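Got a spare moment? Tell me how you read both lines of this record:
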Amino acid sequence: MKRRFLILTSIIAAALFVSACGGTAQKEEAPAADMGSSPESQFSPTPDHSPSLDPSPAPSSELRREPRSSVSEAVNVVFIGGSITEGAAATPLDQAWSYLVADWLEQYYQQGINSRNIAVSGTNSQYATFRVERDLVGFIPDLVFIEFAVNDPMDRVFVVKHMDALVYKLRAINPDVVLVSVATTASWFGASVRNGQEPYNVEFSREAAEQNNLIYIDVGSALWQQVLSESLAITSYLPDGVHPNNQGHRLYADAVISALEPQLIGAKGLGQTTTTLMASGLEHATIQAASTVSDHSCVHQTIGLVCELGQSFQFDFSGSVIGLELMKISDGGQMTCSVDDGGQTRVAFWDRFAQSYDRLAATMLFDELAEGQHRLSCQVNSTVLREGSAESSGHKAVIVGLMVAE
């Protein structure tokens, strides 16, 4: 049966290129490199959990059963995550784990599937919480795969809060949605794995899934099992330490399929619209298009609000949270931003990866504001951004959207 469609780029980022992301301690991991603008990790050690190298999920109350024959319409499937789910390093793209799983699901469900991949390279669960309704554009999912274990910061509160909010929003769209949390891996998880410990990023991802009864599949454990059993270097599957080659993508896909195959026949979700934390005030988190900004000295273009050196904008909003959806570009500069003329923060529109390709990114500016009306003010400053020997060629700032939560 022919699959109706499979979209493997974000709605907003359709023209963007794929991002390149990128010990002696007992549980030492590098910071999540895939979203440099993530809040700094607030390290919170917990008792060690011995990692299971079996990718099969623990028993979950996420599934209810209906006879397969009672379901006649195609199953709507969504993949949301970072560059690993987007398909980075897969050649061709249909060798990515998300493509391979979608192909399997097409055969698994007699009625076929409709599939969308709204993964965005270099982003985490916080950004997903703000963009999910927009990027689904009315598409109502029956089955969702969520992958942020590598990109989310090493911060339990951050991970649990934003995964809970994302689950809340998905259940609000369809209370019967089946949710699958997929934990991938990275080279810096190796110290923990070799010491028989669960990497913190994986631990927090698992806890977030268990808290709301998601199916949890640790495909990273399957990959490490292969590496350790065959005495291979991790680069045999993750050449850059993060993104799988075709063999790595196939291993991830096989681990997902092996875990799901006995569970999905007639499966439905919990039939509820609640979560443990009830979205933590992020139930109305959204992204307003930059085209809604009227008070500015910049220029509205198709891509967003484009500001040059010295130019500025002001944006009035209601809520306790404000952030920017932006472009990282080769001639990107830096903006200085404040709310209600208070403390300042700076936002970079360039990094070393932007020398090779432009890409979508997101950054949270202020997230503990008093409830009520506020004014965000941002201006392009004269800072020349550098990383090592690399340097930006300009001062441009491109704002795509404004992340707000009332």
User: Anything to note?
Assistant: The longest strand covers residues 397-405.
